[in-house]
Amino acid sequence: MPENNIPPDRHVPEPTRRWGLTIPLDGIPLRDQRDLIAELPHLGYTDVWSSESSDADAFTPLALASVWAPTLRLGTAIVPVYTRGPATLAISANTLASVAPGRFVLGIGSSSSVIVEKWNSIPFDEPYKRVRDSLRFLRSALAGEKVTQQYGTFGVDGFRAGLIADPPPPVLLAAMRPAMLRLAGREADGAIVNWLSADDVETVAPYVHAGGSDKEIVARIFVLPGVDSDTARAVGRRRIAAYLNVPVYRAFHEFLGRQEELGGMWQAWSEGDRAGALAAIPDQVVDDLFVHGPPEACLEHIERYTAAGVTTPVISVLTPGDPMPAIRALAPR
Asked: Which domains does the chain have, with CATH numbers?
């Protein structure tokens, strides 16, 4: 069960260049998060990053955070490139980048067949090409150029943004396997990675850095500070089963070499045996993908990600109840 007695005088590692948090925070209405987000810079957090699946959209929480905590950098991790038209995506990005000049980072990605096809009834065709084409369009559109171009997966005829952010926001790509990781390093400003261990960073980072040593690598990291191992592993197993059976995530972990460790889960899941799939997930896989234990140990584990090549760790707090004790415990100072 959660341990709420987090010592206030703990020693923490020296802060990395950036230290991010996933918003909106779970369990609290977004409209009630003003004071919590306003506290983050005082705790040492530099960034807040949103996502977009079945909860809040990616832009609204960041727009609120831009006012509630005007020093934080704001990032989307990620906005799917299929669920907004190219021009609409550029307009949304320019709007937020204009509200928070120099503090917004646009993270885009293919998302998954579940979100794109099952929830939005949009064909999930050629995701690599769609992300590549979206990136190339956004580079032109965010720079204020008039775009008339037939890309491989869509066409744009005569679009020019009426609102141009100064400076234009950097664009990062959600990437898992080599082709997308290379694209992120070659044509984007960096990569956003997810669902990987600290050791896995050493596998993916070189593909991004082939495009330049200055490329940013953002990693969302699932953290349960002050939670006992059994509880943390139960949470982790449920999430692993829900996500790593989705084809894009399964392919990622096959690339990372987890065929043997996760083969039993994939087999049981394909046979409709949900309980068996959960039971087949090894403790070690959960411990690699979910940071848990005393806050000090969690901080040390997060620092392993930065040592391996992550430039911006983004903490996703999964402890139940009020998230602020955990957020304070995971602050870099």
From this structure: 20-222 (3.20.20.30)
